[in-house]
Specification:
Blueprint (H helix, E strand, L loop, with lengths): L3 H11 L6 E2 L1 H8 L8 H13 L3 E5 L2 E2 L10 E4 L23
Antiparallel strand pairs: 1-4, 2-3, 2-4
Helix pairs in contact: 1-2
Length: 101
């Protein structure tokens, strides 16, 4: 069963060409145009749930990220062939710094 926020996310994505993404702010504005800031957290939670279900991908810097661990500004797009389904192998790649010099 999907929520109204998930329905809006999927509806907005369905209206786009393949590979295009949406800004979570636009989802929030579609739900509550006057007080959209108050539901941005709910949009994020619903986007994460859709990503867990394999329906969408969370993007940072236009690259798929682990929906359980991302931070900051993000976008949402429908899952495409070739998108990662597991992020366990890349868990160490999110680390900054290191002894690679």
């Amino acid at each position: 069963m999907s929520s109204p926020i998930q329905d809006i996310i999927l509806s907005q994505l369905a209206a786009l060409p393949e590979g295009k993404s949406i800004d979570p702010m636009n989802v929030a504005k579609a739900m509550q145009p006057e007080r959209w800031q108050q539901i941005l957290g709910h949009v994020r939670t619903n986007a994460i749930e859709l990503a867990r279900d394999g329906k969408v991908v969370i993007l940072r810097h236009n690259k798929p990220v682990n929906p359980e661990k991302f931070r900051g500004v993000y976008r949402i797009r429908l899952r495409m062939e070739g998108d990662p389904t597991s992020f366990e192998e890349t868990a160490g790649e999110d680390q900054i710094g290191g002894d690679e010099d």
